From TrEMBL:
Family according to the record: Belongs to the HAD-like hydrolase superfamily. CbbY/CbbZ/Gph/YieH family.
Known EC number: 5.4.2.6
Protein's name in the database: Beta-phosphoglucomutase
Record organism: Streptomyces humicola
Cofactor: Mg(2+)
Length: 247
């Protein structure tokens, strides 16, 4: 028996933010590309190999905490940088400096372009809440609350575990399952009674590692096979597809 495309035992839904709820994944990818391309151009000259905003973003950056994304991508190119401090100036070539540069670019793009939620995702969240399920947003972004407010969907979630909360509670980010597990705990449900909704490969890994009752992959960029390979039980292009399964 299923409800809204999920096993009948599911009573809580844990949603990633960028790419699942809001159309901000493309903004993040563009900010990462600008950041890394500037760095690589300075380091390697005009013949540098650019950051791929699809392949490199999906494999090394998407879904990870900001500093982890910097380290993982640089490691793929055989590059090591000093760590730096949390308040590192964005022009410095350190892990934290590059991360802070990317964050400034994202905030500027969000400020000038605004934030839009996926209508199908909003309808899905509203529907499962009306049916009595609890909901949480789980994101590595430190800007999660501002994005939710800008998109007008902050009130749709009972719990928010984001980059700020994860730092306060010393939770490792995706692909570790800890942030999703913390959301389930705060909602008062066991992992087996919760479903994870993710578009990132690192998020798929986290959902599978946490032994959640269902892991839903949201394929916005044509990576359905990769999402399944990383643990998705079901893959959809939009959450509204799950509503066709009925209550």
């Amino acid at each position: 028996m299923t409800r809204f495309g999920l096993p009948g035992v599911i009573t809580a839904c844990l949603f990633d933010l960028d790419g699942v709820l809001t159309k901000t994944a493309v903004v993040h990818a563009a900010a990462w590309k600008e950041t890394f391309d500037d760095f690589l151009r300075q380091r390697d000259g005009p013949g540098f190999r650019p950051f791929d905003a699809v392949a490199d973003y999906d494999e090394y950056v998407d879904g990870r905490p900001r500093a982890d994304g910097v380290r993982t991508f640089l490691a793929s190119r055989g590059i090591e940088l000093p760590e730096g401090s949390d308040d590192e100036p964005p022009q410095l070539q350190t892990v934290r400096g590059l991360g802070n540069r990317k964050n400034l670019l994202v905030l500027e793009k969000i400020r000038t372009q605004g934030v839009e939620a996926y209508p199908g995702s909003v309808r899905y969240v509203e529907t499962v809440r009306a049916a009595g399920m609890s909901t949480a947003v789980v994101s590595s972004s430190a800007n999660c609350r501002d994005v939710l407010a800008s998109a007008g969907i902050e009130e749709l979630f009972d719990v928010r575990i984001d980059g700020v909360v994860a730092a306060e509670r010393r939770l490792p980010g995706k692909p570790h399952p800890d942030t999703f597990l913390e959301a389930a705990h705060d909602l008062g449900v066991e992992p087996a009674a919760a479903a994870v909704f993710e578009d990132a490969l690192a998020g798929m890994d986290a959902g599978r590692a946490g032994r959640f009752g269902a892991v839903v992959g949201v394929d916005r960029v044509g990576q359905a096979d990769a999402l399944r390979a990383h643990g998705a039980d079901i893959v959809v292009q939009d959450l509204a597809e799950l509503l066709e399964a009925g209550p």
